[in-house]
């Protein structure tokens, strides 16, 4: 009966978002309260559990997500993303243009949130397609595959960062393992898949053509790359150094401090403020206005994350997590495949990758110690599942359709299939890493 109540709570969440069109944050709150009643939590404890769950999860994440938004905003507005794209396209040439677009999406997608990266880079892809007289779909899909993978797999993006916090994983290791899986996933779902899309006609609307900054106003390529990739370098390098240094070493605690995700993002934003802002004579007032706008852009993401934390806490406080753990122990399915499957089903039903990942985390996080699985790989398995088969209930599906001016049929043949490839190949990559870790 307990498992049935959990399923009813999740079904309610799905219905509120898909059928009632309710804001996901409100849906999470309602589903959490209903779950508390169904699971027999004392009525005077339900509100406290909701508040505790929201506070615990946001306390770990708010700095990472907000600082990531600020960094991404500055990389976009300063022209650093445009500089990186232009450099890579010039480096690869026309014959390998799809590989250049994938690498652009991968590098720029790390600091940029998905929607920002989409709006910023897709018009550049249209410009490239027009210049070389190529199909916009053929040029654009490799770019979008890279943006999707970074959104689903790599911190400091909201969903993987939240999963790291919930599973008590290591953000540096998750990022390192994520990059190992990201490269082949992007290659297959991007440039290799795109070779089958050359004949799909697309006539992007003129409204979505890129408004490029003048070349003289762009930052240098070295400055752009270093600033955009600084969080990756700091997270991975401090993680590696921390593994090499013994606990008793005098510098051990220093590198642990420097490797904290919040500290890494703060250092990166401060550096970007100088390298892409003050150094290029942008006023501090303008920079701070940009940062303020960035926080407004991700306010709802923070609330959705908080709502997911509330649902997780209800499951924990009601004791249902233990029953789920005992039930899962009797299953012969690999924990990573199970987590991927649950996430993929929720993703297809709800449409939101972030909601799918965080809902699955709410179920699994309290019982991870019973699953005998690397938490870093669990983050990546859920991240892969959260990208499964984007269709009519996903805003990304409609953004792609409208920007590329495609039919529903061609949108499914290109976008939906690409997202499915990312999800399936990502799972295989996680399972492969699990053999060696």
From TrEMBL:
Gene Ontology cellular component annotations, sorted alphabetically: plasma membrane
GO molecular function terms attached to this record: gluconate transmembrane transporter activity
Keyword tags: Cell membrane, Membrane, Transmembrane, Transmembrane helix, Transport
Family: Belongs to the GntP permease family.
Localization per Swiss-Prot or TrEMBL: Cell membrane
Signal peptide from the UniProt entry: none
Organism the protein comes from: Algoriphagus kandeliae
Entries under InterPro entries matching the protein: Glcn_transporter (IPR003474)
Membrane topology: Multi-pass membrane protein
Lineage, opening ranks: Bacteria, Pseudomonadati, Bacteroidota, Cytophagia, Cytophagales
Origin superkingdom: Bacteria
Protein name in UniProt: TRAP transporter large permease subunit
Database matches in Pfam families: GntP_permease
Transmembrane regions listed in the UniProt entry: 30-50, 57-76, 96-122, 134-154, 174-194, 225-245, 257-277, 298-316, 336-365, 377-400, 420-436
């Amino acid at each position: 009966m307990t498992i049935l109540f959990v399923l009813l709570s999740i079904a309610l969440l799905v219905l509120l978002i898909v059928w009632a069109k309710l804001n996901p944050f409100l849906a999470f709150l309602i589903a959490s309260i209903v779950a508390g009643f169904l699971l027999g939590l004392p009525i005077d404890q339900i509100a406290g559990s909701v508040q505790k769950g929201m506070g615990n999860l946001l306390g770990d994440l708010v700095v990472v997500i907000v600082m990531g938004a600020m960094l991404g905003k500055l990389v976009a507005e300063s022209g650093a993303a445009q500089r990186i794209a232009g450099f890579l396209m010039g480096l690869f040439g026309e014959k390998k243009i799809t590989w250049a677009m994938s690498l652009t999406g991968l590098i720029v997608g790390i600091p940029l949130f998905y929607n920002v990266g989409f709006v910023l880079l897709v018009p550049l892809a249209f410009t490239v397609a027009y210049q070389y007289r190529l199909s916009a779909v053929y040029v654009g899909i490799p770019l979008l595959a890279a943006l999707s993978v970074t959104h689903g797999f790599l911190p400091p993006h909201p969903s993987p960062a939240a999963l790291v916090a919930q599973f008590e994983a290591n953000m540096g290791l998750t990022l390192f393992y994520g990059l190992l899986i990201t490269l082949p996933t992007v290659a297959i779902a991007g440039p290799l898949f795109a070779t089958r899309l050359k004949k799909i006609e697309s006539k992007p609307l003129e409204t979505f053509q890129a408004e490029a900054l003048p070349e003289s106003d762009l930052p240098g390529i070295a400055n752009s790359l270093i600033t955009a990739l600084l969080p990756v370098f700091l997270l991975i390098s401090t993680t590696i150094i921390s593994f090499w240094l013994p606990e008793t070493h005098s510098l051990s605690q220093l590198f642990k401090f420097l490797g904290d995700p919040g500290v890494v993002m703060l250092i990166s934003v401060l550096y970007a403020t100088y390298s892409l802002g003050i150094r290029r004579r942008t006023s501090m007032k303008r920079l701070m206005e940009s940062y303020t706008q960035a926080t407004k852009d991700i306010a709802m993401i923070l609330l959705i994350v908080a709502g997911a934390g509330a649902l997780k806490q209800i499951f924990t406080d009601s004791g249902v997590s233990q029953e789920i753990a005992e039930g899962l122990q009797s299953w012969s399915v690999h924990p990573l495949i199970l987590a991927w499957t649950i996430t993929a089903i929720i993703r297809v039903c709800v449409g939101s990758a972030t909601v799918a990942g965080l809902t699955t985390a709410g179920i699994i996080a309290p019982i991870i110690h019973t699953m005998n699985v690397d938490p870093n790989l669990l983050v990546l398995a859920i991240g892969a599942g959260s990208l499964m088969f984007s269709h009519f209930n996903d805003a990304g599906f409609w953004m792609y359709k409208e920007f590329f001016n495609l039919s529903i049929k061609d949108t499914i043949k290109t976008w939906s299939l690409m997202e499915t490839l990312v999800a399936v190949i990502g799972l295989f990559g996680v399972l492969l890493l699990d053999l060696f870790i």
